[in-house]
């Protein structure tokens, strides 16, 4: 479309002529390459036929010119429409971002819905919209409720907005979502998450970052990763995260090929449950993890193929050794595991307090 109109028309005519000659040549060959016989002078009917052919050629050339002009006009209209549509999307993005920064919690909630809707309708910039929603969750938020009643009301309203944002993200990570966000990056680094329902989500690609995230629930509130599938291609980072209080559930979660790391995480009081989880493939790392309080329960979990590592790990490429997990007070319970045929790697000579293994399993027999 950058060509001048004249050049575009000439090119189209040349291509049309070449196509016509090619078709005539193929037709001539198909008919057995007959010879053209000229017998005597031209008749009036032959002259009329020649005039008809010339008129047909002129009409065809005019049709080609008209098609080129119409095509360029249609393309220009479509380009204009696309620019107007993109302009409208950019304006909607600015409006939704402005709502997320509003003082009133109801307006911020509306902004979250508007941004999620925009992400569904704007696949070219979907990652940018997701980044804005995740960025909202990374904004400072007190993990514990304040004592002042007025401040407590504000805290609860903000907490509800954050819950809505997490609900929107979780809904788009399930297979039945009308518009899927699976495979996109999600950055929750440094966020405070005290109530979230991500059950049934599938992490099929991209980087899912919970680095330095604080998981802290209050009362009956829970952070739920039930039935989540950490599939091949996904990289999920719980590095340096803190599981401080409340309940964090990975019940019936499937580790089917992704790379999930809890290295340098701290379990300091939360009840973390991996009940009936299936560790089938991929790597799950607990290197340099500190289990100081709370309970990590693997009841009914099956270890059939994934590499679950609690031991010291060497990184020769950067000459770094990551220390093993520390069992300094919390209960880490594997005693009710359903299948221990591919057990985690501990690298321990003696069973530390709080680490419970299945009946008849010795720590010295484990890798």
Could you describe the 3D structure shown?
The protein is an alpha/beta fold and 367 residues long. The protein has 5 helices and 22 strands. Strands 2, 3, 6, 7, 10, 11, 13, 15, 20, 21 and 22 form an 11-stranded parallel beta sheet that branches. Strands 1, 4, 5, 8, 9, 12, 14, 16 and 17 form a 9-stranded parallel beta sheet that branches. It has a two-stranded antiparallel sheet with strand order 18-19. A hairpin with a 4-residue loop joins strand 18 (313-315) and strand 19 (320-322). Helix 3 (105-121) runs antiparallel to helix 4 (126-137), helix 3 runs parallel beside helix 5 and helix 4 (126-137) runs antiparallel to helix 5. The mean pLDDT is 88.
Quick structural summary:
The protein has 5 helices and 22 strands. With 367 residues, it is an alpha/beta fold.
